Known about the structure:
Blueprint: H1 5-13, E1 29-31, E2 34-36, E3 42-45, E4 55-58, E5 62-66, E6 72-79, H2 82-91, H3 93-112, E7 117-124, E8 131-139, E9 158-168, E10 171-178, H4 181-184, H5 193-209, E11 211-213
Antiparallel strand pairs: 1-2, 2-3, 3-11, 4-5, 5-6, 6-10, 7-8, 8-9, 9-10
Helix pairs in contact: 2-3
Amino acid sequence: xLRYLPVVILAMAAVPGKxxxxxxxxxxxxxxxxxxxxxxAFKIAVPVLPELGGKIRDTEHVVMFQDxxxxxxxxxxxxxxxxxxxxxxxxxxxxxxxxFFGTFVMADFKRYCPQARIESAGxxxxxxxxxxxxxxxxxxxxxFGDQLAFGPPGSPPVAxxxxxVFVRNGFVFVVSTELAERxxxxxxxxxxxxxxxxxxxxxxxxIVAKMQFTKPAPAK
Length: 220
């Protein structure tokens, strides 16, 4: 089973000061500001602009978009093998998505940030034929921590990421985005966890609205 770790690797490579090596060529394709995944599972209107420091990095199954002003989005599309199709058929959508997130996605976030934890989560049965929203906290795991370089010293900021997991056309999709202003606004930030969840949920839904899902051609 494919692991979610490439998302973390791609994101860390995009943090200023971490690695300034030239970005590798894309595995997917980019045409008139639309990114197409190499597996043919989806297309998405690119949500970042080069003029604002926008960057795109990808692997066969994950694409990451990030700019210098507060956008950090990753979209993973993982093909289900026979075992995963069986897990879905026996568990049902809700339990399967919870299982997938805990077993693969959250496990890799913990490898990247051992103190990562789920703050809240909820299942929406009607959205995308069943989708899991999960909001996690990552102490010291912000993609925007460099923007506090001239701020007061103290503990590393606690990042918050919204994650959306669903199944479409034989792929498990994992869409993830960080609530950048939780870090970049510093002491002036005053949103409640419930308000944060609402903001992240809307952003995740807006990302999916930019996506087109396609059924890959059958293997020959």
